Amino acid sequence: MPNAVGRIGSLLETFLPWLGLVVVVLLVSALLRRSATALVALLLPVAAWTYLFGGLLLPGPEPGSRDIVVVQHNVSDENTDPAGTARALADAEPDLIAVEELLPSALPVYERTLASDFPYKAVQGTVGLWSKHPLTEAEPLDIKPQGVTEDWRRGLRAVAHTQHGEFAVYVAHLPSARVGAGGLKSAWRDESAVLLGEAVAAEKLESVILLGDLNGTVHDRGLDPLTSQLNVAERGLAFSFPASFPLTRIDQVMARSASVGRIRTLPATGSDHLPVAAQITPA
User: Which of 42, 163, 244, 275 lies deepest, with the highest CB count within 10 Å?
Assistant: First the structure.
């Protein structure tokens, strides 16, 4: 599907797993019509859907001793229960917690709630990282599109010193992609993804973990600068947005020199996103 007009290709890719419902409708129609030809014709789309998404539905292993458990959550700047949200994220017993839309007024609440189990933190603008392991080299990450004029700090990089070695951890919140009469508006998101991809490509540490609200799915070509060089989850659909009726996963966990195992959603918080948790196995 071309992306030249209204970024229709990216819009379709955002909801790509749901195309399986079209196959189901066609299958029911073929059965009702008792059409052998239609059933045979359906083998191709069924095979394509199974190839793309069938593996994600298989159960994944439980976290092992070599795994790093991570949680990613856009906590929402309209969240009225930051303390409850922080406790919900900590209940997943992760090694790392990444958050976006972190307001200055809510930061002390997260700090107090997470301090005992996650003594190390890095915060830049509206993104934050809490860790059970020491963090060093925390610094802002410039992924701001040229057209944005206001104060906009939505990326950070830090080095996590884990029992399995050092990981460069990136936390990012890419610009929103909006659906309108003209299609999908994602130019700023795509530009920010390029900047983030360039930063990851230039990273000197071999092992990288990327956590963030990327406002796009791993099938969306707008995230190609990232998915072309990072591993994505091998198990789980984990639709995270909107929290009231999840249709897609725009909250992502990716890694380099490591595999991302099963990704899953956590119970709803006061945000319009669901948190996601994943296990990362070093190479």
Answer: 275
